[in-house]
Amino acid sequence: KAGVTQTPRYLIKTRGQQVTLSCSPISGHRSVSWYQQTPGQGLQFLFEYFSETQRNKGNFPGRFSGRQFSNSRSEMNVSTLELGDSALYLCASRADINTEAFFGQGTRLTVV
Amino acid sequence: GDSVTQMEGPVTLSEEAFLTINCTYTATGYPSLFWYVQYPGEGLQLLLKATKADDKGSNKGFEATYRKETTSFHLEKGSVQVSDSAVYFCALSDRLSQNFVFGPGTRLSVLP
Q: In terms of CA atoms, which chain B residue is nearest residue A56?
């Protein structure tokens, strides 16, 4: 059974640009969550989608958005990139609300 | 609200030393508890889990027991190896609030 797949693995963008990250969950998993990880702030929750609906949202500005498709694949978009958005973005999938989360390898975003 | 507290790191040990990483939690309902491990440059991997009081999760020599009376889930290993050097995250999934919450992580360095 394939694990959680995130693409791309590495990305370099310029300030002011926008970026879209992709996450394919484990087959059959309906929940996808996104996290931002930085050395200073640690692991911070961005949002969770369950069956195409945003179920939970963290404390991030509106520049961060996401969506989930009918096949459970999810995308995260960050508009008007800032230097502080440089981070490892992790995606996690769960079979259901109360089960363990499985993580992808992450996308390393560098904003220059 | 739901929260997870972990001991501050970094923790530095010599090879074959005994490891304890403390974790305590606050939850609205009756949570499932998890330990995740993150090796450098990678995503988080599920290390072990426990779904109800007095359950003991174990994997790769690591153990943790779900203690409802002390709201704790401390991670232990009898003899650490250099390859155990990583960041360890305690987490909970609350059935009532349906939140999945991570602690701040504890960095472990094992010296040969």
A: B99
